[in-house]
Amino acid sequence: MLMLVGLLVFIFIFHLNARELAETLVGQLHINPQGHYVSLLLKMAANFTRGELVVACACALLYSVIKFSESIGLWNQRQWGRTLGIASIGVLIPYEVYALIYQYTNFKLMVLLINTCIVLYLFMFFNGNTTLSNDKNHHSSEI
User: Fold this and answer.
1) Are both 85 and 29 inside the same structural domain?
2) Same domain membership, residue 122 and residue 101
3) What is this structure's pTM?
4) Which of 29, 60, 80, 116 has its CA 20 to 30 A from that of 49?
């Protein structure tokens, strides 16, 4: 999370645009710029404006806050953590189904199956796990 904020500050201090930043990262990491995904990244970065870069960094920051909150809630076996987990993973399933129908690959199928299993596992936690009753008792003892 701090890395994203640092990246945003870095962009504003050195007045970089997204293409310059992407080219710098590719060069510093010694990645082949002719690779398929790297060249795709460089083409996309060429079309980014500074405002779009700020929005992308803000969205990435929001995503990392949500995932961090989810992990804290799941680690402490809180019901809100499970709800956040189901929501944050479950919202991707329709997109994954669409992507799988649009262009089938085994990788997309595996991602869909894994995410569906995670959502089902978390959903089963809501309905049958004894730690939820402990979670409720824990809340009543805090009050």
Assistant:
1) no
2) yes
3) 0.60
4) 29
